[in-house]
# Entry
Amino acid sequence: MKNIHTILQGPCLTEKASLQQELKNQVVFKVHPEANKIEIKEAVEKMFKVKVGNVRTASMRGKQKRVGRYIGYTKDWKKAYVTLSEGEISFVDEL
# Structure
């Protein structure tokens, strides 16, 4: 799993994520469930050419969904809170 496009699946666009970006200089990504913090850090640094300070991850459980009388679940997924180093403000313009 060394390809950066399989590690980073996309940005997580929520109110909390946008608040983290404005206040704490953090960006939130949906990542592959088996990716570790080192791989996530390298992928973000390569893809966006920024310096990453810290990475925190959270595993999210899939939600229960119902279609008619049938009940199923969405996939479990993982998100990463990536803190950018001081002076790395240009990331907001690229996203």
The mean pLDDT is 90.
